[in-house]
Records
---
Amino acid sequence: MAPYFTSSENHRKSQTRMNQKKQTPGQKKNSFEQAFLAQTTAKGIRKHLLTWYDKFQRDLPWRKNTEPYPVWVSEVMLQQTRVNTVVPYFERFMTAFPCIEHLACADSQQVLKLWEGLGYYARARNLHKASRIVVSEYEGVIPHEYQAFRKLPGVGEYISNAVLSIAFDQALAAVDANVKRVLARLLCMDEPVNISASQAVYQKAADALLSHRFPGAFNQAMMELGALVCTPASPACPDCPLSCQCRAFAADKTRQLPVRMAKKQIPSCHIAAGIVQKGNRMLITRRNPKGLLGGLWEFPGGKVKKGESASAACLREIFEETGIRAENCSFLTRICHAYTHFRIEMDVFVCRYVSGRVCLNGPIDYQWVTKEQLPEFPFPKANLKFMHMILDSK
Ligand code: SF4
């Protein structure tokens, strides 16, 4: 089924095609009628959705006002992350950095520490960089001009449209995974929602449907509907404000939509990491700020080679990364963790420092720390999964 809404260009093309075909009266609605129906339907959708949102929206800390800074922080945190996970992070972040100047002045370690466990750390690094640009180039005022805002680090189409619509009432449709799912069902769109090639199609549909009077509320309402009612596994259609307009509901296709392309199996990687003890201190290293988990601290380690034991890999990696010799590798635990494109199984060992001065190859910094100091440093989630075993040890 074609989407209800077409751009004026597509509309003209379809009109021409229709004019070329011979139509029997009443067989097909004429284009004026179709456009009228589409607009009526769009109006109905906007009205029902906004009324529902007004009544049922969740009370979330970033909805207390529409100041651009908290809106921006929340939207960055919410990318690929659930609302319930974000709430405590957002509150801690806003307490530590209540305005953009505070964030700009902060140390990158402090920013990463507040982001610890939230994942996708490039978001935090980019937000931090962007805050410094806003302060140095825009006197601390977040630019509301599309091109200027879009140029800031980490600001893509979704973030720009979400922030500018919510904070500045600009008519820009924000399309995230929730919105795509709602659109796919509402308009019976069968373009796979998880491939970038279909992003433009969903953006176009969202642009056509957007309320120009209340763009911020409309965008949030679409996302809220996707999160609360039009959920992935079991959409609550009888409770949905759009059930009368929903094509998938009418066609009993809500379970078939949205279409998703089968994902490739993600590779798995065997890692060994070592807690190297020297007296009451242990060695931690800091990852290069560029790349995966950039700027975070971790216990040294790396990939286990084919045919190598995990304990041997642990000692070899410690030596290769830090130049120090360790021994007495005793197994502590195995943890599993999934990233977006791969998963790891990490064998963690406790070992004893033997000799050598730290000479880094890969990491950009190191510290010998006591267990009491560990919570001061931002670590990746995989390390946090066994951190309690160190902190609880005597
Ligand atoms: S009627 Fe059902 S499938 Fe359609 S938008 Fe509402 S919840 Fe989603």
Note: Residues 182, 185-186, 229-230, 235-237, 240, 242-243, 246, 248-249, 254 surround iron/sulfur cluster (CB under 6 Å).
---
Amino acid sequence: MRCPSYLVRCKNAAGGEHRIRLPLPKDLTLGTYKPAREGSVDLACPVCRQLHRYAGTEVQHSFEEVADVRHLPPDPVPMRIELACAHPGCGQRAVIYAVRSPEEERSAALARVSQSEVFVDCAAGHPLVLPEAARWKVTEGPNCNPF
Ligand SMILES: [Zn+2]
Ligand SMILES: [Zn+2]
């Protein structure tokens, strides 16, 4: 059977081609697909732990042939993380996104994201510095989809 796939290609320049699977939007319909968000978001890759910026236009939506629907990986859980840039004297608010599989504990996922290699800038124009995870405001659920 054909199953929807919704993803971005990770921007890791050295890590080979890999994908970041995203949760399916609730209103996803073949042929009328449009990203829920026009702008860009900062998204942590669960494979290589690099944090890059992605535009809504970079989301790839397709249907893949799957022999057995039971072999499909479960939809990832989106996480929206609000934080204040920890660059000395900065404190600019920033929002980053991450995904975890339902089998991965939330605490383990946050520990993973806290070790991200950051390739995005803070609104003040310098590379974003992540504060310790204890200072993050984390929300999960369907309203936290990156796209
Ligand atoms: Zn990656
Ligand atoms: Zn900053």
Note: Residues 5 and 88 are 41 Å apart (CA to CA).
